[in-house]
Amino acid sequence: MPALRTSVRSARDTVRDRLRTWKVPGDTCCDAMLLVSELTTNAVLHTDSGHVLCGLTLTGDERRLRIELHDDGRIPVRPPEYRAGLVEEGGRGLFLVQQLADRWGSASSTRAEGKVVWAELTVHP
């Protein structure tokens, strides 16, 4: 999808629809949608990407959900070193990812020119 702010909603809506088709429980679905929103927003705002690619994988035993966001950014994403202040509008995205995901990280992308930022969730029945 194009690396535009409007793509964040499209990514979230697409993920929600896919997770409903897979019958992923509500709490996991809500967490996944928030992770997709934060990862997509981060890519759109902080890289020079012309497009982003969002991927979802549900393991064969349906116990793990992996979310991937591929972009053209070349700088690896690291855990946040500082917390946003109470009056700051932004700066909480990666902190939320760190708090919600069981595991997360970034690596070179095999599907885009830059990197992939991924997050994994345990699917609770």
UniProtKB/TrEMBL annotation:
<dbReference type="InterPro" id="IPR036890">
    <property type="entry name" value="HATPase_C_sf"/>
</dbReference>
<dbReference type="Pfam" id="PF13581">
    <property type="entry name" value="HATPase_c_2"/>
</dbReference>
<dbReference type="InterPro" id="IPR050267">
    <property type="entry name" value="Anti-sigma-factor_SerPK"/>
</dbReference>
<keyword id="KW-0418">Kinase</keyword>
<dbReference type="InterPro" id="IPR003594">
    <property type="entry name" value="HATPase_dom"/>
</dbReference>
<protein>
    <recommendedName>
        <fullName>Histidine kinase/HSP90-like ATPase domain-containing protein</fullName>
    </recommendedName>
</protein>
<feature type="domain" description="Histidine kinase/HSP90-like ATPase">
    <location>
        <begin position="2"/>
        <end position="119"/>
    </location>
</feature>
<keyword id="KW-0723">Serine/threonine-protein kinase</keyword>
<keyword id="KW-0808">Transferase</keyword>
<dbReference type="GO" id="GO:0004674">
    <property type="term" value="F:protein serine/threonine kinase activity"/>
</dbReference>
